[in-house]
Every structure is written in C-alpha cells, then in structure tokens.
Specification:
Blueprint (H helix, E strand, L loop, with lengths): L2 E12 L2 E12 L3 E5 L6 H9 L6 E6 L2 E2 L5 H8 E4 L11 H12 L6 H4 L5 H11 L14 H12 L6 E5 L7 H18 L2 E5 L3 H7 L2 E6 L2 E6 L1 H6 L1 H8 L4
Parallel strand pairs: 3-8, 3-9, 6-7, 7-8
Antiparallel strand pairs: 1-2, 1-4, 4-5, 9-10
Helix pairs in contact: 3-5, 3-6, 5-6
Length: 248
C-alpha cells in the first residue's frame, strides 16, 4: 500500500504556545484515518499545515511523494488533495449542479467567464458526482434552501471534483442527526474503498470514529500520544485518561 500522506516531525507554535510538536504519521491509499483529541490538541493546526494554509516551524509534509513545505493551498489542491470543512462553504444563491460545475471549471482551468460557462459545461461529470454522493435529485435546488446534511453532501462532491487521492475532512458529520451521521460515514467509507482515496478526518462523534476508521491517531497538546486500530486505541490507558474517560 502506497502512502498518500507522510508527516515527519512536524512542529508549529504560536507565540509561546506549541500547537503541534514533533508530530509524525502516515496515511495509505484506501485508508480512513481518524485524528482525535480534546479541544486544543492541535488537530486544526495540523490540518492547516497539511493543506498549505500554515507553514511549519520544522518538519515536513509529503503528499504523494512531493514535499509541500511552502506550497500555497491551491498548489496543494492541484496535487490531488480535497478538503471539506466543519462549516460548509457553498455558493448559496447557485443551484447544487452549478456548485459542482464551478469546482470542475476550476479543476479544468476554465475559470474565465465562469458565469457564462457554468450553465453549459461539465453537466455529465457533475451529475456523476452528485449521483456518487446521493443527491442527484436535488440538482436544480438552490444550495441556500438545502437541509444541512444535503449541504454536506454537496461539499463532499465539490471536494471530489479534482479527483483527489487525499481527502481532508474536518468533522464531516458536524451538525447532523444520528441517522445522517451514520449515512455520511458509510458514504465516505464506500468512496474511500471504490476510489482508493486516503482520508484523514477529525470527528467528535466517537461512535463514527470507532465504527468506521481503519486507524486512529490521538493528539494531546500538539503531541501524538497514541495510534493504532480502533480496538488498540480504545484500550490505551493514556487515551482513556486524557480523552475517552468513562466512555471507553
């Protein structure tokens, strides 16, 4: 199994606060890797270092064999990295289909005259993505009127538009009810397997993490304190003390 992501001794501080400290881990293609930890553990900083929004103080991030230290987010995206966010980011006034077309226009470097082009191009490819995430029937609806769970699916389709080999998902089930959360994680797991994508995700819902993740890494105060299979992490005494508590 080839690695799509390699993090080597990564560190980043803000003033006197060490947000990420000497962090190392790998993610293979076709794997679903959960990153968990208490608030302030360094999860968001780590995501932003991988995505190019922040630069590390030391260490390196290697994506599909390319060291991306100093890359801008768009350069990282062009390598084949998709990302979804805790709070969805779509064009509310545009339809579901138009949102996917906008992402595809950017991927195909056809960004000039977007408003003129968006209604005419990439319809079939857009519909394939909407069918993949299960909302093809919503293609003509404005994103501004969609239920939150459906918005999350639109965002996932947008993140898949550049045919990523690595997908970063920041709390993919945030704001969803129990049945929606399970449906979203099942969908993500299926996409990982069928498209052989490596997925790194953060999540506060421990049921989603321990049911669907292949591996789990646990951060605390910017440091890696445990990693392994869900069973191994659940049984780890240190993890129980700092995070899982009585829920373990």
């Amino acid at each position: 199994m080839a690695n799509v992501l390699e993090v080597h001794e990564l560190s980043r501080s803000f003033g006197g606060v060490q947000a990420v400290n000497n962090l190392s881990f790998n993610l293979g293609e076709g794997q679903l890797l959960a990153m968990i930890g208490p608030n302030g553990a360094g999860k968001s900083t780590c995501f932003n270092l991988i995505n190019g929004q922040l630069r590390p103080d030391s260490g390196s991030v290697v994506i599909m064999g390319t060291k991306i230290n100093g890359f801008q987010p768009r350069q990282v995206w062009q390598l084949g990295v998709g990302r979804t966010f805790q709070i969805t980011a779509t064009f509310a006034s545009m339809t579901v289909l138009e949102n996917i077309k906008m992402a595809l226009l950017s991927y195909h470097q056809q960004s000039r005259s977007l408003l003129k082009r968006v209604r005419k191009v990439h319809t079939d490819e857009s519909m394939e993505l909407l069918e993949l995430v299960g909302i093809a029937e919503q293609q003509s609806r404005s994103c501004g009127v969609l239920a939150y769970g459906d918005l999350k699916r639109v965002e996932l389709a947008v993140a898949l538009a550049n045919k990523p080999k690595l997908l970063l998902m920041d709390e993919p089930t945030a704001g969803m009810g129990p049945s929606e959360r399970e449906s979203m994680m099942e969908l993500t797991s299926e996409i990982v397997r069928t498209r052989n994508i490596g997925v790194l995700f953060t999540e506060h819902d421990m049921d989603a993490v321990f049911t669907h993740a292949d591996r789990i890494i646990v951060l605390n105060r910017g440091e890696l304190v445990a990693e392994g299979t869900p069973d191994e992490v659940r049984a780890d005494q240190k993890v129980q003390e700092i995070y899982l508590g009585s829920s373990a």
